[in-house]
Amino acid sequence: MLGDLSGMMNKLKEAQQKVEETKTRLNTVLVDEVAADGKLKITLTANREIKSISIDDSLLADAEELEDYLILALNKAIEKATKINEAEMAVAAKSGMPNIPGMDMFK
């Protein structure tokens, strides 16, 4: 029994390490979203950190329109990044989880 517990603890540590490695790797996965016929471009990481926003000068004339485009593009980019993040984190967590009866939520 003690050997099983030790093995499970090691597996949990491995899972935690894989999750941390995945978080670090997701900082290098970039998600782009383009709006307003290419006049607005947003880039963020799969960890949902905004890296850049590029705005064409023609959008600067109408603040309300620009705000609308920014909101739409940011929400779409965040949604894409979240899907990538959740899928990658689930894989990382599942791959290192020990086989504990009743704990099959990651399958």
TrEMBL record:
Ranges in coiled-coil conformation: 5-32
Keywords: Coiled coil, Cytoplasm, DNA-binding
One Pfam family per UniProt: YbaB_DNA_bd
Keyword Coiled coil in annotation: yes
Keyword Hydrolase: no
Listed PANTHER family: NUCLEOID-ASSOCIATED PROTEIN YBAB (PTHR33449:SF1)
Stated name of the protein: Nucleoid-associated protein LPB303_14605
Organism encoding this protein: Polaribacter atrinae
